[in-house]
Amino acid sequence: MNQFIAIILVSALTLFSWGNLAQAAGNSGVELKLVAEKEIETINSLGKKETKRTEPALVAPGEEIIYTLSYSNTGKETAKDLFITNPLPQHMAYKANSATGENTAIVYSLDGGKTFDKPENLKVRTSDGKERVAMAANYSHIRWIIRKPLPPGAKGDVSFRALLQ
13-58 pLDDT, tens per residue? Predict the structure, then answer.
């Protein structure tokens, strides 16, 4: 039992503060919905393997969770200069190159969401004082910059994957 740490992820998501996820001046009509899922393999009625996503109840260290943020403009005006900032959940490590989002630029933070940049520009100091490019596990936040204005009624999704530490 020591090697298997069970976490009730759904409860953790409810308790986790997802404040300040969508930010843009004057874009109060943009709504967000977060979904956390785990992929499982099943055998269908034809005996073939299928991968399905399901709401996780228990997650073991090293298991992967897929976080999807759906956004929609429920307001009456076009949302401009929209970006979505998501902190990495506690005890989760970002899986390299897993963030996606159509018509977005994706940047990362190492300092709790104060500054953001492309992965190749993010640097950390090693114990011997040398500087190296940060690893995905060093990221604290992900930001998706929506490249196009979001008209009323428009919607989209962004996502990333993370591993339980």
Answer: 333 334 445 555 456 788 889 999 999 888 888 889 998 988 888 8
| Cα gap 162→73, rounded to integer Å | 27
How far is 58 from 119, CA to CA, in rounded Å? 31
Q: CA–CA separation, 94 vs 107, rounded Å?
A: 13
Q: How many domains does the chain have?
A: 1
Residues in the chain: 165
The pLDDT score that the predictor gives to residue 1 is 36
Tens of pLDDT, residue by residue over 59-108, are 889 999 999 999 999 999 998 889 999 999 989 999 999 999 999 999 99
User: Please, are residues 33 and 69 in contact by the beta-carbon 8 Å criterion?
Assistant: yes
Please indicate, yes or no, if residue 2 is contained in any of the structural domains: no
**Residue 67: which domain range?**
7-164
Q: Hey, what amino acid is at 110?
A: L
C-alpha distances in Å from residue 44, one per residue of 28, 39, 40: 44, 15, 12
Task: Quote the pLDDT of residue 64.
Answer: 94
Q: What tokens appear for 164 in the block?
A: 């339980």
Burial 56-84 (b: 16+ CB within 10 A, else e): beebeeeebbbbebebbbebeeebeebbb
